[in-house]
């Protein structure tokens, strides 16, 4: 089975394009945004069909022997060599031999699959699609032609020729085409492999030595798994380090179609398909009480969590017993809720790689939900590193994105420290853009990023001038601050301070706030007193700090830490350029008016 985790030399683009040609057959019956409803489930079924072809005769013979038994699964799975089977005599190949009865025969083919495949068919809502594909008249029937197209030699998808990694790339391309035709964000369904491999390599960089020992047993979880390609890549990387490693994957997905693809992939690999679960991770945690060695995920960002609000609020009120105790982000963006879910799922030695956009770094004032979540992560010393990725590396967005590496078991040299890595220049331009994806994180770029992470030092890594990685190391406290409230006295008509019980009455109209950076060597009171004396008293001699209103905040101003000052252009050069432009303009105007006078 380990061979399934290796990529072969099949032409992924050619195979995906050939499968997508089904669109030519179904146009008219289905609108362009509905093509994927036919193509994706048919591709899964063809994959299952071709995989079972290798043992089809053996399966049917065994079925005849044991069909009178109440429990048949174990016998039939052993006969097929997989964790699924089909007791029907029909295959894609022989279905086309009886075009008059193809609908009934195809339904018998579907009905012959084991229960785990029946769940996949149900979640694709495939029977409804099939009714429309068949139509009400013989002239409308497209089923025969679709199956005939899938019988072309180029459409073969059995595991003996097409590995799990190959198939992942095929599905990636198909889902992208489906999303484009549906005018939908392709990126919400999958993340490209160059990003995933960067995440996996960062996750495993410090564990390679321990992962090459005998008897490695690891669990991996993706809380927004899409078609499960992150899980597949983690398995691939772990098995490269130890071919005998025992890897168990777990994933949850809210989208029915991509969940079905993920489950079919698990069934074919012989993984525990029941570990692929359907549902809203925020509102309906399907892995309550589970803990994992690794969490890897690209949850949606910039999307609201209104539909999950009731369940999330209830769990927040449970405090430490729930997943969302530290705080809740704005209703408009739920990405940090996924971070809290992932942290709750980590073992004491577990690690997580999760994608965020820039807002997770700094949104929210001191005491707000987002700031409290950052405080929770940093004060527990779980944040190892944040890596800025190149822009235009995702299919559905060109904005700045970041990989957060969170670890509950930091190595000794990282304790109390956070590493920031600017890898925004580590990319190769694509020859052809795919959606918003205009660049790739090529292998050499990925290696450079992982090297910077592994060396854990303040350094600028310069590769040919254009490609650069910069690493900086900070103390946890460098991202914390105290938000203090500065009061000023209210004055009477004579300009004297108003007093109440011997204390000045604060003038709320003059109330101000200041952010006091934390320090590793000074306590809160000492730090605030020193700051107040230096930064406030010279401008407000009667002011004072209301310590009861002090709040703790955390933000990570990533861009500011990597800002490079560029000196402005000398004024003489600017004047020279303006003069040149004026001269060109006057020449053009003179020429224009001369032509008009003629």
Radius of gyration based on Cα positions:
30 Å
CATH architecture classification of the largest domain: 3-Layer(aba) Sandwich
Helix content: 40-55%
**CATH homologous superfamily heading of the largest domain:** Vaccinia Virus protein VP39
Record the strand order, biggest sheet.
Answer: 3-2-1-4-5-7-6-8-12-11
Q: List the total number of helices.
A: 23
- At the fold tier of CATH, the topology name of the largest domain is Rossmann fold
Please, could you describe this protein's structure?
The strands form four sheets. Strands 3-2-1-4-5-7-6-8-12-11 form a ten-stranded mixed beta sheet, with helices on both faces. With 598 residues, it is of the alpha/beta class. 40% of the residues lie in helices and 17% in strands. It has four domains: 2-178, Up-down Bundle (Ferritin), CATH 1.20.1260; 185-476, Rossmann fold (3-Layer(aba) Sandwich), CATH 3.40.50.150; 478-559, no CATH class; 570-598. The mean pLDDT is 90. The protein is globular and about 105 Å long.
Primary descriptors:
598 residues; alpha/beta; Ferritin; Rossmann fold; 4 domains; four-stranded antiparallel beta sheet; 23 helices; 40% helix; globular
């Amino acid at each position: 089975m380990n061979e399934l985790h290796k990529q072969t030399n099949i032409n992924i683009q050619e195979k995906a394009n050939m499968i997508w040609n089904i669109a030519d057959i179904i146009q008219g019956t289905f609108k362009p945004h509905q093509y994927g409803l036919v193509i994706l489930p048919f591709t899964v079924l063809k994959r299952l069909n071709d995989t079972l072809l290798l043992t089809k005769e053996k399966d049917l013979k065994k079925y005849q022997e044991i069909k009178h038994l109440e429990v048949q699964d174990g016998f039939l799975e052993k006969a097929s060599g997989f964790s699924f089977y089909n007791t029907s005599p029909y295959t894609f190949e022989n279905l086309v031999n009886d075009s008059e009865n193809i609908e009934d025969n195809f339904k018998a083919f579907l009905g012959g699959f084991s229960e785990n495949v029946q769940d996949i068919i149900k979640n694709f809502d495939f029977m409804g699609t099939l009714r429309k594909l068949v139509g009400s008249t013989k002239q409308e029937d497209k089923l025969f032609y679709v199956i005939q197209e899938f019988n072309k030699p180029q459409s073969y998808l059995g595991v003996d020729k097409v590995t799990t990694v190959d198939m992942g790339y095929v599905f990636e391309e198909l889902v992208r085409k489906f999303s484009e035709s549906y005018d939908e964000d392709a990126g919400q369904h999958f993340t490209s492999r160059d990003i995933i491999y960067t995440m996996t390599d960062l996750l495993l960089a410090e564990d390679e030595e321990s992962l090459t020992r005998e008897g490695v047993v690891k669990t991996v979880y993706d809380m927004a798994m899409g078609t499960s390609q992150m899980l597949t890549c983690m398995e691939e990387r772990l098995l490269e380090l130890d071919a005998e490693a025992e890897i168990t994957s777990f994933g949850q997905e809210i989208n029915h179609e991509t969940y079905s693809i993920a489950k079919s992939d698990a069934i074919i690999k012989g993984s525990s398909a029941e570990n692929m679960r359907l549902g809203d991770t925020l509102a309906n945690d399907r892995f309550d009480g589970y803990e994992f060695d690794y969490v890897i995920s690209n949850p949606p960002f910039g999307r609201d969590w209104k539909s999950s609000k009731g369940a999330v609020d209830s769990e927040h009120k449970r405090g430490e017993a729930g997943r969302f105790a530290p705080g809740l982000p704005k209703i408009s963006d739920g990405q940090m809720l996924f971070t809290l879910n992932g942290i709750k799922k980590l073992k004491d030695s577990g690690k997580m790689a999760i994608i965020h956009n820039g807002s997770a770094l700094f949104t929210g004032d001191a005491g707000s939900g987002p700031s409290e979540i950052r405080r929770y992560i940093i004060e527990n010393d779980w944040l190892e590193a944040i890596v800025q990725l190149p822009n235009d590396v995702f299919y559905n967005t060109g904005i700045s994105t970041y990989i957060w590496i969170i670890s509950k078991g930091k190595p000794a040299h990282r304790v109390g420290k956070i590493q920031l890595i600017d890898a925004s220049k580590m990319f190769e331009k694509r020859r052809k853009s795919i959606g918003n994806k205009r660049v790739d994180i090529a292998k050499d770029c990925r290696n450079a990023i992982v090297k910077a992470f592994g060396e854990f030092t303040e350094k600028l890594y310069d590769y040919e001038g254009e490609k650069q990685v910069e690493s900086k190391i900070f103390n946890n406290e460098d991202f914390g601050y105290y938000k203090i409230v500065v009061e000023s006295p209210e004055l009477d008509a004579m300009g004297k301070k108003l007093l109440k019980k011997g204390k000045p009455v604060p003038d709320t109209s003059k109330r101000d706030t200041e952010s006091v950076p934390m320090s590793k060597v000074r306590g809160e009171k000492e730090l605030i007193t020193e700051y107040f004396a230096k930064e406030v008293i010279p401008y407000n001699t009667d002011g004072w700090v209301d310590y009861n209103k002090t709040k703790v905040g955390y933000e990570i101003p990533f861009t500011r830490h990597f800002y490079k000052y560029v000196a402005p252009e000398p004024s003489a050069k600017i004047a020279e350029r303006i003069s040149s432009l004026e001269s060109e303009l006057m020449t053009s105007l003179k020429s224009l008016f001369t032509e008009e006078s003629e």
